[in-house]
Amino acid sequence: MNACDGFTFTYLGYDGADLTESDYRETWQLQRDVHARVVAGEIGPQVLFVQHTPVYTAGKRTEPHERPQDGTPVVDVDRGGKITYHGPGQLVGYPIVTLTRKYGPLEYVRRLEQAVIDTLAGEFGVPGIRVEGRTGVWLPADGVRPERKICAIGVRVAKMTTMHGFALNVAATSTGLFGSIIPCGIADAGVTSIEDETGAAPPRLVDVARAIEPQLERQLSFALTSGPERALV
C-alpha cells in the first residue's frame, strides 16, 4: 500500500514482546526526519509509539528553579509547556500529521485528549476526564486524592504539521521520578497510572498502543485517506 494513503503506526524498539527503551534524543531526531517527509508530501500521517529511557524534557516555559537535581538527563525541547518526565512503563505517542484551517492546534490537542479518554474508558475501565484550564487527561478528585494526571500532552506545530504528542502512564513505575519536579508546572495535583487506578497488573505498552490506534484514526481522520499500516522498528 502507498504510505501516503493512510496512517502508519510505528513501534520503536519493539522486540516481539513489548517496546524496549529508546533514547529520547535519537527519537527526537527521528521525529524531525519524519516531520520533514510528511511536510514534503513524501509520506502520509504517522504515529510513532515509544518507551523512553529515563529523561526529563523541558518545554519553552520551563523556569530554572523547576529543573530537577537528581542527575536524570534534562533535554530542552521545542514544544510548548513546562517540564515533564518520560521513562519505563510510560507509553509515548508522537502523531505527525498535517492540520487544516478547520482543525487547528487547539482542536488537535482536544482530539488527542479524547482519543486517550475513550481508550482508557473502553479498554481499561478508567474514567479519564478533561480539567478546565489544563491540558492532558486527568482522574477526578475523589475525596482522598486530588485531581491527578494520567496523560500529559505537549505539541509543536511547524509548517502546519505536528510533532511531540502524548505520554500515557501505564505502569505505576512510570510515575516514580515525577516527585523530583512539579509536572507541567502544576503544584496542586498528582500523577497516576493505569496500574494505580485499576489495581491490576499493567498491560503491555504495545497492547495499549494497539488499543489507542483506532481512537487516533477516528479523532484524526481529517488527516487520513485510507486504512492503516504498521511498521515494527
UniProtKB/TrEMBL annotation:
<feature type="binding site">
    <location>
        <begin position="79"/>
        <end position="86"/>
    </location>
    <ligand>
        <name>substrate</name>
    </ligand>
</feature>
<dbReference type="InterPro" id="IPR045864">
    <property type="entry name" value="aa-tRNA-synth_II/BPL/LPL"/>
</dbReference>
<keyword id="KW-0963">Cytoplasm</keyword>
<feature type="active site" description="Acyl-thioester intermediate">
    <location>
        <position position="184"/>
    </location>
</feature>
<dbReference type="InterPro" id="IPR004143">
    <property type="entry name" value="BPL_LPL_catalytic"/>
</dbReference>
<feature type="binding site">
    <location>
        <begin position="152"/>
        <end position="154"/>
    </location>
    <ligand>
        <name>substrate</name>
    </ligand>
</feature>
<dbReference type="Pfam" id="PF21948">
    <property type="entry name" value="LplA-B_cat"/>
</dbReference>
<feature type="domain" description="BPL/LPL catalytic">
    <location>
        <begin position="41"/>
        <end position="224"/>
    </location>
</feature>
<dbReference type="GO" id="GO:0033819">
    <property type="term" value="F:lipoyl(octanoyl) transferase activity"/>
</dbReference>
<dbReference type="GO" id="GO:0005737">
    <property type="term" value="C:cytoplasm"/>
</dbReference>
<keyword id="KW-0808">Transferase</keyword>
<dbReference type="GO" id="GO:0009249">
    <property type="term" value="P:protein lipoylation"/>
</dbReference>
<keyword id="KW-0012">Acyltransferase</keyword>
<feature type="site" description="Lowers pKa of active site Cys">
    <location>
        <position position="149"/>
    </location>
</feature>
<comment type="pathway">
    <text>Protein modification; protein lipoylation via endogenous pathway; protein N(6)-(lipoyl)lysine from octanoyl-[acyl-carrier-protein]: step 1/2.</text>
</comment>
<dbReference type="InterPro" id="IPR000544">
    <property type="entry name" value="Octanoyltransferase"/>
</dbReference>
<feature type="binding site">
    <location>
        <begin position="165"/>
        <end position="167"/>
    </location>
    <ligand>
        <name>substrate</name>
    </ligand>
</feature>
<protein>
    <recommendedName>
        <fullName>Octanoyltransferase</fullName>
        <ecNumber>2.3.1.181</ecNumber>
    </recommendedName>
</protein>
<dbReference type="InterPro" id="IPR020605">
    <property type="entry name" value="Octanoyltransferase_CS"/>
</dbReference>
<comment type="function">
    <text>Catalyzes the transfer of endogenously produced octanoic acid from octanoyl-acyl-carrier-protein onto the lipoyl domains of lipoate-dependent enzymes. Lipoyl-ACP can also act as a substrate although octanoyl-ACP is likely to be the physiological substrate.</text>
</comment>
<comment type="similarity">
    <text>Belongs to the LipB family.</text>
</comment>
